[in-house]
Amino acid sequence: MTADEAIRDLLDISTDVKGVAVLGADGELLAFGPGAVASDLGTTGARLLWDAAEGQALATGATGLDHVVVEDTAGAVAVVEARGRRIVATTGPQPAVGLLLFDLRTCLADAFPGEETSS
Questions:
Q1: Partners of 59 in beta bridges
Q2: What pLDDT digit, counting tens, does each position of 3-24 carry?
Q3: Which domains does the chain have, with CATH numbers?
Q4: Are 34 and 90 in contact (CB under 8 A)?
Q5: DSSP per residue over the chain, as a string?
Q6: pLDDT tens digits, residue range 20-44?
């Protein structure tokens, strides 16, 4: 399955996801779905969000992150790191966060089968 096919499957099963982008290890845009996530949040916004959250986690003694979710009344932005890549998604209001994270991890696993998870 290609990354584009995995994104289509994600959008078919997850009613919460409004936009999605898959980023490579260097932050390059590998694939994206509809919505403003690829152009508005994309590589720079996802990296800044991740770096800020990781810095805070490390400052409090955590060993690292595998996901970040920022939510407000309009929706959420979620970033998941796995398989040497990050997937970024935007949602509508009140997403089912646990299910969203599962769906994003599944999308990465489907897009890059057989690769080891590295978070």
A1: none
A2: 889 999 999 999 899 989 888 8
A3: 3-111 (3.30.450.30)
A4: no
A5: --HHHHHHHHHHH-SSEEEEEEE-TTS-EEEE-SSTIIIIIHHHHHHHHHHHHHHHHHHTT----SEEEEEETTEEEEEEEETTEEEEEEE-SS--HHHHHHHHHHHHHHHSTTPPP--
A6: 988 888 878 888 887 656 555 666 7
Separation of alpha carbons 65 and 63, rounded Å: 7
Q: How far apart are CA 29 and CA 59, in angstroms?
A: 29
Tally the residues of the chain: 119
66 close to 101: Cβ distance less than 8 angstroms: no
Q: Give the predicted TM-score (pTM) of the model.
A: 0.84
